[in-house]
Design goal:
The protein is α/β, with parallel strands linked by helices and about 200 residues long. It contains seven helices and 14 strands. It has one domain: Metallo-beta-lactamase, Chain A, CATH 3.60.15.10. A six-stranded mixed beta sheet has the order 1-2-3-4-5-6, with helices on one face. The longest helix has 12 residues. The chain is globular, with a radius of gyration of 16 Å.
Amino acid sequence: MQISVKAMGAYQTNCYLLEIKNRTLIIDPGVNATNWVIKNAKNPIAILNTHGHFDHVWSNSELKDRLNIPIYTPQDDAFMLSNDPFGQGVPPSTPDFLVEPNSNIDIDGIKVKFHHFAGHTPACSVIEIGSLWFSGDFIFKHSIGRWDFPYSNAKEMANSLKRVMKIKKDYRVLPGHGDETTLQKEQRFFPMWLKEVERNKIV
């Protein structure tokens, strides 16, 4: 298993290439990710989105067309890929597979789980592959995703934090922005963030 990462665009969104079993999964191809992905992905088989924000899906369409591979997107964020709700000019893309919450899927023999942790977006997900968590904009090193954007929901973010605080197994966390961390390290900070979310949420 080999991981490559490059921060893309003005928001420095991490695009990941995960090579496993001689195949490559592309996770969150952001702004201008295409050339780097094509140069470094040895045998790409799929594009996976952690959520629908433009800086995580910008190169979906171009990579799908050039590599002829499918896009997997959490179901309730798919609308963001086609209607550009933030007006950023993101090239529209269409998922080939709408992933339902907390789904286990098999991509050419690679077992993938989409954990649904809503709040940052309606379908914000952590993609689990083995001991890896590609956490998108749910968990960062010493921080969490914002819950005050359009289509965000503070109450759902609070519920997601309560659930992730109870997980006993540790994972290597590869976030959508910034440096990697581990789940157990970040669980120390979740009670603080939960209080902050609950103080500001609209019930």
